[in-house]
Amino acid sequence: MKIFIICSVRGASKEYKDKLEKYVAELEKEGHSVHLPHRDTKQDASGINICRQNREEIKKADVIHLFYSKESEGTHFDMGMAFMAGKNIIVAKNIEYGPGKSFARMAEEEWEKEGAK
């Protein structure tokens, strides 16, 4: 299965990246092909070209794994592209959320359960 990881890149700590890489290593050990943006997207490209690279990989993905962060603009942008492409997600890591509407709640309680289609 081809998996795209939506996660923070800009400003991500070494500890955060290490957790992502460990998660991805387990998926790859299971035989999945995984696109991890900080590792696989050319980060020295212009902003628009980073978005284009991720768009193409999201289109190719069978499923999206989400490490949600409300502070990450790139996470929100990639979520929009994945939703528009009709991709289903697995929420791998989410933030705590309370009552009311939020992207974190929508991702976990609606998108993951019902799908984007």
Summed up:
This protein is α/β, with parallel strands linked by helices. The chain contains five helices and four strands.
Task: Walk me through what this model shows.
The structure is a single chain. With 117 residues, the chain is of the alpha/beta class. 50% of the residues lie in helices and 15% in strands. The chain has 5 helices and 4 strands, in the order βαβααβαβα. Strands 2-1-3-4 form a 4-stranded parallel sheet, sandwiched between helices. The model has no long low-confidence stretch (mean pLDDT 94).
Identify the notable features of this structure and list them briefly.
single chain, 117 residues, alpha/beta, Rossmann fold, 5 helices, 4 strands, 50% helix, globular
Total domain units: 1
Shape call: globular
- Average pLDDT, to the nearest integer? 94
Please tally the β strands and state the result: 4
CATH architecture: 3-Layer(aba) Sandwich
* CATH fold node name: Rossmann fold
H-E order: EHEHHEHEH
User: CATH top level?
Assistant: Alpha Beta
Helix content: 40-55%
Q: Provide the gyration radius in Å.
A: 13 Å
Q: Identify the strand order in the major beta sheet.
A: 2-1-3-4
Specify the number of helices.
5
Distance between the termini: 19 Å
Low-pLDDT stretches? none
Helical/strand content category? alpha/beta
What is the beta-strand fraction? Answer: 15-25%
